[in-house]
Amino acid sequence: MKDNLRFVDSDMHVMEPPDLFERYLDPKFKDRVSVRVGADGRPNRGPAGTILIDGEPTSDVDLQQYRKRLRSGATKVISPLSGSRLQETDRLDFAIERDYNAEAQVMGMAMEGVDIAVLYPTTGLGLLGRNGIEPRLSLAICEAYNNWIHEFCQYSPERLKFVAMLPMHDVHLACRELVRCVRELGAVGSFIRPNLLNGRYWHSNYWDPLYSAHEELNVTWGFHEGVSAKYSHMIELYGENRFYRHVAAHWIEMQQALIAMIIGGVFEFHPKLRVAFLESQNSWVPGLLSRIENDYPQYRESHAPYLALTPREYFRRNCWAAVEGSEPEIEATAGLIGADRMCVSTDYPHFDSNFPNVANNVLKNCSRDTAAKILMGGANVYGFTEADFQKADKAAGLSITVRGKSVELQPA
Fold first, then answer.
1. pLDDT tens, 279-310?
2. Looking at the 3D structure of the chain, how many domains does it have?
3. Is 49 among the domain residues?
4. Residue 158: which CATH number?
5. Among residues 104, 107, 130, 108, which one has the least CA distance to residue 49?
6. CA distances (Å), 191 to each of 14, 163, 168, 174, 321, in order?
7. Among 18, 83, 254, 399, which one has the highest count of C-beta atoms within 10 angstroms of its own C-beta?
8. Whole-prediction pTM
9. What is the pLDDT of residues 349-388, one digit of tens each?
10. Beta strands in 279-409 (DSSP E)
């Protein structure tokens, strides 16, 4: 808990081990995936995107045409909004010392006051971010990651949850992998890049089987941008300037996805679909909904006669959008879309995260009532119940209230 409030981290990240594919990838595909190695010949950590698939980069790392300093010197980099930011603040020493293992993950949760965390990848965000990857290779990569993250979560399965990586290069393979991950491995949803893939966007009927699978399995579709996808049109617009692309991609790609989901009728024809828009802040949502609604009178009847609800009604029925804690407009946005349709992305352990002050920032930037709804928002996104929280409490060795009395629980 954080300040006696339930807190679900809707978007906490892991740092995948460098030997993940050496240990988990189907042997018949190992010659098609290569990773960087050290002088000892063993895989080692490096910048995301240094993994090659069929000899091609998996992200935008090769766009850089000249070297830049990764560190600015001995200064401490502090964001004026966040009150933290991790780069050069030494706040991740505990995780680095443990090589970002599951113990470090749970320690990070304790530092933030997180009850349950839903884990997203780091390297994996851009791993399949390229058009034209052979579907079976795409599937093998997803199976390797999903099998590893499942084992990672077994350190504390009541508190560590995960979303599945899906082979989006073939919708039917994606459905099969989603079913396997949910039914056999315990996944609570999937993560999908918002970018256009293989020429198909999210309003396409092509994706209907996958939307239906999420509904029938009662799991969440999580949109998560990561700036590094080779198929992102932000690369065409802004080229090497990652600052430019990072600012634009996390908002604009999400806006494009929400427009497609609403105007394209995805929410009309898949009314039980739960969609989360993560790590892109959320003050863009109310303005975009107003813009769509402004065009309803002249275009709805002719171009989208199937729409039965207003944009806000679809959003409030089907969607949640995350904050990262430091945004000064949290309270204002909550007043426009509802605090109950908001959740939190801590972004731990990425260098631009506000960890370990994400929850503190939420509490500081809005009323306690609004903060309580936002911190709890992830439970609604992923369908967690009080029973899930009680299991998490027991695993964490916390106390719960039983028939009006506080009962101390021991770690599982």
1. 999 999 999 999 999 999 999 999 999 999 99
2. 1
3. yes
4. 3.20.20.140
5. 130
6. 14, 6, 10, 11, 14
7. 254
8. 0.91
9. 987 888 999 999 999 999 999 999 999 999 999 999 999 9
10. 319-323, 342-344, 399-402, 405-408
Q: 66 lies in a domain?
A: no
Going by C-alpha positions, the residue among 34, 38, 39, 36 that lies closest to residue 47 is 36
- Which of 384, 388, 359 has its CA nearest to residue 371? 359
In order, the DSSP letters of 130-155 are: STT--HHHHHHHHHHHHHHHHHHHTT
Question: Could you read off the pLDDT of 196-235 as tens digits, one per residue?
Answer: 889 899 999 999 999 999 999 999 999 998 776 677 777 7
Contact status, residue 385 vs residue 319, Cβ threshold 8 Å:
no
Residue ranges of E strands in 35-132 = 52-53, 56-57, 116-120
How many CA atoms, within 13 angstroms, populate the side-chain half-sphere of residue 168?
Answer: 28
Parent domain of 280: 8-61+71-408
| 111 closest CA partner among 373, 395, 328, 354 | 354
Q: Tell me if 283 sits within 8 A of 327, measured CB to CB.
A: yes
Token pair in block for residue 135: 């579907």
Give a yes or no: residue 51 inside a domain.
Answer: yes
Residue 195 lies in a domain: yes
